[in-house]
Write a structure and sequence with these properties.
- By secondary structure, the chain is mainly beta.
- It is 0% helix and 34% strand.
- It is built from no helices and 6 strands.
- It has a 4-stranded mixed sheet with strand order 1-4-5-6, with no helix packed on it.
- About 7% of the residues have low confidence.
Length: 68
């Protein structure tokens, strides 16, 4: 699976099994999404409802925006 990056800073691709989080921890390592960040996972755009390090579809931390 190929990674897809968009020009918008809050959008990141999130291939299954290989998270590419849009936010980093204090050491600069990708680790989470902040409220309002959007990612693509399994060809679906998700928006983070709050700070989260969970995978979309695993709990209520994400809202589905649309299929692509």
């Amino acid at each position: 699976m190929h990674r897809v990056a968009f020009a918008l800073p809050t959008w990141k691709a999130l291939p299954a099994g290989d998270p590419n989080w849009p936010q980093t921890d204090w050491q600069g390592n990708p680790s989470h999404a902040g409220s309002g960040d959007q990612i693509i996972y399994n060809n679906i755009i998700y928006k983070a409802n709050r700070y989260t390090s969970s995978i979309p579809e695993s709990n209520g931390s994400w809202s589905k925006v649309c299929n692509i």
